[in-house]
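Data availability (excerpt). The following record was deposited with the supplementary files.
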Amino acid sequence: MLELRAVTAGYGRRAPVVRDAHLTVAPGEAVGLLGPSGCGKSTLARVAALLHRPDAGEVVLDGTPVRGFRHRAPREQRTAIGVIFQQPRLAADPRLRLADLIAEPLRATGRRASAADRVRELAGTVGLTPDLLGRRPHEVSDGQLQRACLARALSLEPRWLVCDEMTAMLDASTTAALVRVVEDYRASTGAGLLSVGHDRTLLTRWCDRTVPWETVAAG
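Predicted structure:
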């Protein structure tokens, strides 16, 4: 279970973006978090992905409270969550080829020997042709770069996926393709999903349940 308990978070204690938020995602469940731009849902997604320390409350992962965030999180917890952001160009190092981008988590966790094979496998899964793997972010489209970012998120076989408006900048065909990749991954692994967005139709079709922001956090 991924649990957010009474989470208050922001970028300054005097003006929290999120107040007293409660949300749970069960193993294998797909939960959509629906809210307008600027409401704080992306901040809450970062807390859920262990990328932002809350000012109050706690994150509980598989029954164990999270005590560290970002690089201070225990490796077992940190690698249990894969995250895909809305803007791939802000999430990708512009100096890296796509192959190296996908391989980043593998190399960071000491899996260099298997990285090349895993990158090829993931590239095929997300629909990247071999010629694209040698290109850098400025040499590919937003959709191609987001495919690489999704491959990176799947590289360590996480038990939880956090998608923060993953498809907001993509056309309909790429959106459908990436949602299908996520769903195939969930079906084969039993991973849970938290998908954050403002597109009610997409979240309703994609997720097992969709929760509106006003029922998650205090105003």
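Summary of structural features: The beta strands are 2-10, 16-25, 30-34, 56-61, 64-65, 81-84, 160-164, 192-197, 209-212.
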